[in-house]
# Entry
Amino acid sequence: MSQKDIVACNVMISVLGKNGFVEDARGLFDSMVEKDSYSWNSMVSCYFKMGDVESARFLFDRNPVKNEVSWNVLIDGYSKLGYLSNADNFRDFVSLYNEMRWSGVCPSESVLSLIVQCCAGFCATGLGKALHCEIFKWNFGYDVVLQTGLLDFYAKVGDLSSAKRVYDEMPCKDVVANNAMISALSKNGLIKEAQSLFESMTEKNSATWNSMITCYSKMGDIHTARFIFDSSPSKDVVSWNAMIDGYCKAGQLYYAEELFNNIGYMRNSVTWNTMITGFVQCKEFQRALHLFDNMQAERVKPTEVTMVSLLSACAHLGALDMGEWIHSYIKKNKLKIDVILGNALIDMYCKCGKISSALDVFHKLQVKNIYCWNSIIMGLAMHGYGNEAINYFHNMIKEGVHPDGVNFVGLLCACSHSGLISEGKMYFSQMQSVYGVEPGIEHYGCMVDLLGRSGQLLEALELINSMPFKANAVVWGSLLRSCHIHKDTKLGEQVTQRLLELDQHDGGNYVFLSNLYASLGRWKDVDKCRKLLIESGVRKEPGLSSVEVDNVVHEFVAGDSSHPQFSQINAFLVDIGKKLKDAGYEADTGSVLHDIDDEDKEGSVSYHSERIAVAFGLMSIPLGKEIRVVKNLRTCDDCHTVMKLISRIYNREIIMRDRNRFHHFKDGICSCKDYW
DNA sequence: CACTCAGACT
# Structure
């Protein structure tokens, strides 16, 4: 084969590949007696164009005459297929890069830019810095793209001073470099500097304007953000998305929706994600799920980000069926379960009461971060599996993950829920000395809860007085609840006094004190509390319970007759009442009569919301399937007793999540062993 | 240049 023949074949391979005839190209390639690096590279390039990563890599590995271009084609091919946005692939890719350096090939600027971009994406601080040193050593003549990549890398890993240094050393700064700098400044809250850079720029593109929109909305200045949006001469879809996100973050859903509805043909999947996420952030979980229906109706392809937001909505709602549907959707559509999506799944399963599935996802995740560990430990804690939570904590330490503050909240919470008093005390004392985590007020809060609930009220009070923080309403509230459980009115009154000094507008405090008096039959004091509550004009958060039936979440508030099956539910509640009576149950009428809880204000047939939800569940959910109820407040003693009885009388498993933890009612007993 | 995950008490 002459050199001329080889060149002709190479060109032919390239042409065939470009037109999609990859088989023919391969045939020609295989038939060549002699091949040069050009032949190999063209063939690899063909496979990448067809999206066939495996074949491309297979050929690359067997290429005996690798040159600089070979590496370029490989790396470029990977990146164009979005292959490098996956952390596992990135690790593989880094070892590939090292191999290339070992074989003495000098990377090109474009390859280096790609790697630096990846380092920014994965916050691979060490590698990024090492690359910067090498680039400096080789003296790459200040390629503007590469330098901007470095600037972006430092901005993303939070090293603003290095970002600034890179920027200042750039001999010529194009609009992209300036944009990166604006973004870096705004991420660090240096809005003034970003603003003056913006004003000094002679050339601006849409990205420049968009950066400023994000900059102002991140600072909470939504009006200026809107002003920039309106002033921008080149609005693209990113401008609209950034503005919608700004309104969502500011809690102004009305304006966000207005833009969302008016964006027109430009609307893309990110627009949908932004709006769905916005609903979730504003706690409009049902609307988030509903918007997803519209997204599907318009045949917009959901992404991993969509799934994360939807799962978060399911977690809050306790919508297990919907959550499981999303999980199977993810599998069916081969979406990538990375740490973020994986953690969203774990969190959803934990909060929907299916800890076994949460553990399943957890163990299948190859890469786990501190979020995943925190979710699973907190999940175990909420279900009362204190010892398992402690085991997972130790496994985490063994795997070399450093604990953080959130981690200890979960751990101490686990001890508290399971009554593991000495363990809780031990971990609390080890936080600083063994694990180097400074205890915050939230950890003291956990300890006050742990001590108080176990009846060590004075120790709890001592801890409050000795802690290096000013006690907040949460800490006092926790102690007050313990006073209620252990019927210590004297301390309860003192604590309430402190609470009212701190926050006169929290109606919950009056309710608590009132319940404390009611449990002791001090009705005069109960009346006094009620007057105080009315005079102060505050309202307590209304109790709200939900139950999921056929992928639809039904919400119930006491006394709300808006549900279409209201009368049937009411009749069923009366029937439940009769059956309970037959079983020997007697309502705690004293406390019910005098309770000033909002939920009890209605007439003859009034029940706490969780009872209505369970009644509806009993009516609508087929036998054999458990009833899952979510309540926004803590359940009361009376309802807890009723749930236990219902589980026995109707032979049903009831899984209820309240504000604090899970209760699994089965055969007349609860998983919390009445310690909650 | 835009969109994603966790926590004490009520």
